[in-house]
# Entry
Amino acid sequence: MATHLRFLALTVTTAIAETTYRFDQPATVISGPSGAGKSSLLMLLKHVVGGTAVLTPAVCDHVHSVLASVVVGEQHMILKRTISGDRSDRVDILDPETMALQHTLGTRAEEGQRSLSDVLLDALSFPREKIPTTRNGKATTLNLTFTHLFRYVYLEARELDLQVVGHRDNHFKKQRKVLFELMFGLTTSAVMELERQVNQLTTDLRKAEAEEENVGAFLRSTDPRTDDELRTELAGLRDMLHNAETTLRTLRTEVSETSAADTVLRGELRAAVQAATAATQEVLAARELVEARESVVAQVELDLRRLERSATAIDQLSPFHFVVCPRCAQRLEARTVPEDHCAVCLQADPAEEDVDPAAVREARNALEQQLQDARELLRADAEVLRRARDRSSDAEFLATNLRRQLDAQTRDVVAPRFDAISDSSARVAALNGGIDAVLHLRDSWARVRSIAQAAKDITARRKATNAELKTRKAESDARRSLVSDLSRLFSATLMELNLPWEQSAVVDPATYLPVVDNTPFESLQASGGSLQAGVNIAYHLALLECGLTHPDILVPSILIIDSPRKALGSNPDDQERGRRIYSRFKALTDAYGSRLQLIIADNDTAPLPDDAFSTIELDYTHPMVPGVAHPGPDHTTRTEDEYQA
# Structure
């Protein structure tokens, strides 16, 4: 049966007023003159359930928020959404009893977040699916949302005579068809999952085939050898490498055996080199000691000469009383000189022991003795250095002689093999390089084979998946009779509306769109008009009734129509056709009562058949936006409907 969806009330809030519009009866007609806000009220119903509505300046400028009381499936929900601002893309879900905030959900899907669409579809028990498609050659998916489903229940005035459920919108084409198939059970979640798998496998197969072709073409263009030729060449290179490595091992063994015969001589040479090294270290140590002794002797000699000069100066100058400066010849009597200070330099007189001849002689004797001792030590250390140099020279001479003997002994045996070893090593390296190059090419060909095998595996999996998909679709083919039922109901409804020239009407089983007299919807009239509008209304009424009469069709149980008599003329036939449309509305409400809901916006001359229709009456004194003065039909400011147009 049709999945239950019903608006109970809509509250419109401005800065100064608030009005609640109720939808208590199975059918509600919103009437009033042009510009009173009928279409805007319907747009606010779309807005509050997360849709992208066309809102007039009057709504955008004055309405703060809308709040809807809605029954979705078995759940009673209170939805609140602001008109503009940062939170206009969020919808609050309130508790119906306490009006406390339960959840705030986005109107658009966000990664890892539950959206309003998810909640509404789950409440309707409508499957949330992703449609397999391809974009830029790659498999991807399109989300199905509640706003997509809402296009099946809301006939906007601007689209009434132009398109059926947005069938001219290429971006919505896939979603429209899949929604129909889900509603009628012509496809299932299992079928769609298989279709997604086939879509992904097709993308993977194209990628594998392209990669195989690209890699193979690159290999053929860079090296003409085939994989079989490379295999044969690799076997030959490995044989040659084995022979070259055998030759190299033989040469190295011969050199090793020759070297073993020289072990004793090599040992003597090693010992001689170690002795020469030790002697060299001894020479360095002795040289450092001699240099230190020479520094001591030089310092003592310097101290002795300084003492001699000081004693000579004291002996020769102390008897003199200077009255003039010996340097500049200026007189010194006028200077004030402290006692015990020099009249020339003004420094304190030296201590008695520093000028005492006996003390000076004693210091000289001590320095001379120190100098004699230092020179004796220097001579002894120089002798040690000389002997160390002799030993170092002898050790170097011995090592040189042993090295010459070893070279002479091995030159005739080892040297010829060195060239052979070098040549053999170079050949082994070259063969290894050739083998690596061939292996690299063979790895690339192995990759081509691996890609080809992967493509075969993908092809096999796709074939198996397609077979399962075909089986699952065959299981759903029996339900295509429901499309035939819809087609018959559509034809009967269209006949009842008595549209001109109409002879036959069906629902196309491939596109699920109405076809009248073998003519698609968009070709019925050159410029639209009442014929298309009538066909569109008949199609949606048949769709609604088909859902109500079949227990397993998921068509929502609501239909919202803006201006059903759009483009009808004013002659008696046109007016009669308008009455027939409303009679059909009444027949549905009489037959199904509260199981369905019709919300219709029409002008104030709507031909209501009786009081079974509840009405919401709008006028310029009481327009849809509460608390806002309407300029009226004669005001120069554009009306709300004119803004919308």
